[in-house]
Amino acid sequence: MVDVDDEQGTADAEPDVAEAEPAFAEAEAPGAETAAAEMEDRLRRALADLDNLRKRCDRELARARMTERAGVMSAWLPVVDHLELAASYARDSADPISQGVQVVLDEALAVLARLGYPRFEDVGERFDPFRHEAVSTVESDAPPGTIVTTIRPGYGSDEQILRPARVVVAREGHQ
Fold first, then answer.
1. Residue at which a domain ends, from 65, 93, 115
2. Is 15 within the bounds of a domain?
3. Which of 83, 88, 96, 147 could form a disulfide linkage to 105, CB 3.0–4.6 angstroms apart?
4. Whether residues 69 and 99 fall in one domain
5. CA–CA separation, 118 vs 175, rounded Å?
6. Final residue of a domain: which of 115, 136, 152?
7. What predicted TM-score, i.e. pTM, was given to this entire model?
C-alpha cells in the first residue's frame, strides 16, 4: 500500500503486515528446526576449529621463539668462551682491564642463566650422554663413568641443552 503526500509530492511505502506474516510462517516449517540445529552445530564446530587453530599457532610461535633464542645464544657461546680464556690468563692480575674482562664474563654467564641456559661442568658427576660429550677416558681413583675433568663447559638445563660439556671420563682399570 502506497500513500502519496500531496504537499511534498513524495510517496511513502508502508509494509503490509498481512503480506509478511505468511512468509514468516513458512520459515517455521518442520525442516526449519533441523536446519537451525544443523547451522548451530556447524557454528560450534567452526568455533572449536578456530580455538584449536589459535592454540596450535600459540604453540608454534612459542617453539619458534625458543628455537630462535637458542640459535642466538649458540652463536654467542664462542664469544663467552673467548672471554673466559682472556679472564683465565689475567685471573691473578690486578689490572683494571683484566678485572673488566672478568666482569663482562660474569654478566654474559648471568644472561645465559637468566635465559634458561646456565653453565655446567659436572666434575664428579656421572657421565650423561645427553648433557656431556666424552672426549677422552683416563684411569682414575674415581668410579668408572665419573667425570674427572671438564674441557669445555656446557650450557643448558635438563629440558634443553644448548651445548653439551666436553668432558674426560674415568674408566675401569685403576684400583
1. 115
2. no
3. 83
4. yes
5. 35
6. 115
7. 0.65
Asked if residue 6 belongs to a domain, the reply is no
Do 155 and 120 meet the contact criterion of CB atoms below 8 Å apart?
A: yes
Alpha helices for the chain (secondary structure H): 17-27, 30-89, 96-114
Q: What's the number of domains the chain is made of?
A: 2
- State the Cα angle at 156 between 119 and 124, rounded to 5°: 55
Tally the C-alpha atoms within 13 A of residue 151's C-alpha that lie toward its C-beta.
Answer: 12
Give the range of the structural domain holding residue 133, as residue numbers without chain letter.
Answer: 117-175
Buried b (16+ CB within 10 A) or exposed e, 119-153: bbbbeeeebeeebbebeebeebebebebbbebeeb
48 & 62 share domain: yes
The string of pLDDT tens digits covering residues 88-124 is 887 777 788 888 899 999 999 999 999 889 999 999 9
Residue keyed to cell 674482562: 101
